[in-house]
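User: Could you go from structure to sequence for me? I need the amino acid at each position, not a summary. Structure tokens:
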């Protein structure tokens, strides 16, 4: 299983462990990934994904899994999340374009 978030594509980063004597040794900073069950209201079922804790906050901020996936760019999502996005778009229909104010 890869260490990559399925919603935000966060992955491992590389850096240094710096000792007291300032010796630098390569190390990896791994994302904080957790298995989470989200509820998709459009699909009417639960969805299990392996996401970062940062992604959980983003999903809550956007009002749930469905609005988050509809907003997310396809290049960032994992194949499973992209499949979910397409299924939600099929159920909900096309997303309306934001209206411009006439000034």
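Assistant: Here is the amino acid at each position, in order:
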């Amino acid at each position: 299983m890869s260490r990559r978030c399925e919603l935000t594509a966060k992955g491992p980063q590389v850096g240094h462990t710096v000792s007291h004597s300032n010796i630098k040794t390569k190390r990896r900073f791994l994302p904080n990934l957790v298995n989470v069950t989200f509820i998709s209201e459009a699909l009417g079922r639960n969805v299990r994904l392996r996401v970062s804790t940062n992604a959980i906050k983003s999903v809550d901020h956007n009002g749930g899994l469905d609005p988050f996936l509809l907003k997310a760019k396809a290049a960032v999502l994992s194949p499973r999340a992209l499949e979910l996005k397409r299924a939600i778009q099929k159920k909900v229909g096309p997303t309306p374009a934001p209206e411009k104010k006439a000034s």
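One structural detail worth keeping in mind: DSSP finds three helices and four strands in the chain.
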